[in-house]
Amino acid sequence: MTAPTKSDIWRKDRDHLLHPYTDFSCFREEGSQVIEKAEGMYVTDQDGNRLLDGIAGLWCVNIGHGRKDMAEAIAAQVMDMQYYNPFGHSTNIPASELGAKLAALAPGDLNHVYYTCGGSTANDAAIRLVHYYFEMKGQHRKKKIISRDAGYHGATYVAASLTGIHGTKLGFDRIGEDFIHHVSAANMYAKPEGMSEDEFCDFLVDEFERRIHQLGPDNVAAFIAEPIMGAGGVLVAPKGYHKRMYDVCKAYDMLYIADEVVTAFGRLGEWFASEAVFGMTPDILVCAKGITSGYIPLGATMITSEIYDVIAHPQCEGGVFSMGLTYFGHPVACAAALKNMEIMESEGMLGNAKEVGPYLQETAKSLLNLPIVGDVRGSHLMMGIDLVADKKTKAPHGAGVSEAIFKKCLDRGVIVRPVGDRIVISPPIIINREECDMIVNAISESITEYLAEA
Ligand code: PMP
Asked: What's the CATH number where 362 sits?
């Protein structure tokens, strides 16, 4: 990479923007890398460095960057009708079309959609819908939610409370008070030595059931889980876990919320992963990111007809769901989602993820030969690589190492994501085998160079 020049934009950004997950203390010195252009699998920064995007922007640019047909669809909708209020009995064409399309593609009878501005607000909507549903059923005490350690569910206050990643709550002492509780992450890499996958699954399910009893089944309303934990480190649960957790939910009259913000729209080779990959249909399914491939912000919370029939019952007191987002069913965002899904379909992108994803998983296993790579895991186009100080004890290597590897990969023209002691990969679903090799080679060379310098 050429040495970065400090542009006017770089200064404006440094002086005025509050970037998320950015260490303000060193930001004043270092500022940001300004990304100026993006096309297909690549982004280009202001210094002209062309970088292979191994993280799809942030798990979202599934169809790839810079598509003209997306720009045209978005522009066409702006010209037709860019916004009108969605409250009461008013709607627009793309929101209606998209609702029907999502209902047709989603598993089971997840037939009703609440639109939001992204994943966090979609999870907030899920919790509000859960509370509203039990209110309408007269179960006024059924409000508690069980989430998981290492789960990531977003940045708004409720979504951050659902999140179980240490550090996201620092500086926020009121997060998660009272109604949100966490059970263990389904982290196979952290399962006790000698415990089989099935035994670990038993342990997790038992723990969940015990927690429900502790909190009181009459108080516990729902369980929320990502099919594969993303930001928590790409943690793949033991076989059968989701279905068994779902069955426990049903035994205690609880709702199962699947947070498919990352896993939907092709990342695991399917429109939605819950049923197709994990064999169970949730009561509520939350998605965002890949729904528009990040071209425009949009989230969606889908509920079953059973839940809808309760909250839409004419006898319901109150009668309205009062979560009123100005941008519910935003026509431009919904038009972008429709075009995005049309592109995925016509260009066979889900098939590509199904074909190339396993290749990426297989190829990356070679990284296990490196002395600090403790685990390489994932599914299809989601991958987590644990960096450890000791392969036997699995002691983490220390957060600094992933940042160092990230920078060395950048020098090699590849973007990966450092998350704590891990490297995460989640490329656009249009990736080909050669580009998978480029990512794996960049990581391998970067780790080797890091070790040589240590
Ligand atoms: N849920 C999951 C599983 C996510 O990965 C994210 C974002 N990374 C969110 C929710 C929050 O989505 P957003 O940032 O669009 O609000």
From this structure: 3.90.1150.10
